[in-house]
């Protein structure tokens, strides 16, 4: 049975290792890559960052890997960054 991934107003909220797994993360990252592939400025690539939460860096690395494998240039932060910094 397919697992439903739920998003709210603050994004994806799930329990790590329950609903927030590497398998589900790969699904979300691939969906994002497919969506952004049609953006007019995708040649600039995407930025992936992470914060101090548990396994945030590992999840960011997997996200960057999936997006890069979809043919999109990725810039992965090399240290902790806040969401506003990534948006900027």
Task: Offer a few descriptive terms.
single chain, 88 residues, alpha+beta, two-stranded parallel ribbon, 3 helices
Strand arrangement within the widest β-sheet reads 1-2
Q: Tell me the quaternary state.
A: single chain
Order of helices and strands: EEHEHEH
List the uncertain runs.
Answer: none
Tally of DSSP helical segments: 3
Largest sheet: 2 strands, antiparallel
Fraction of helical residues: 25-40%
Secondary structure tally: strands? 4
| Percent of residues in β-strands | 5-15%
Summarize the model shown.
With 88 residues, the protein is of the alpha+beta class. The chain has three helices and four strands.
Description:
- With 88 residues, the chain is an alpha+beta fold.
- It has 3 helices and 4 strands, in the order ββαβαβα.
- It has a two-stranded antiparallel sheet.
- Strand 1 and strand 2 form a beta hairpin.
- Helix 1 packs across helix 2.
- The protein is globular, with a radius of gyration of 13 Å.
- The chain starts with 6 loop residues before the first strand and ends with a helix.
- The model has no long low-confidence stretch (mean pLDDT 91).
């Amino acid at each position: 049975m397919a697992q439903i991934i739920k998003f709210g107003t603050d994004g994806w909220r799930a329990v790590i290792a329950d609903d927030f797994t590497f398998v589900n993360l790969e699904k979300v990252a691939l969906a994002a890559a497919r969506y952004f592939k049609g953006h007019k400025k995708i040649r600039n690539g995407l930025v992936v960052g992470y914060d101090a939460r548990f396994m945030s860096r590992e999840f960011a690395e997997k996200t960057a890997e999936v997006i890069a494998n979809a043919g999109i240039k990725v810039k992965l932060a090399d240290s902790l960054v806040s969401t506003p910094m990534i948006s900027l």
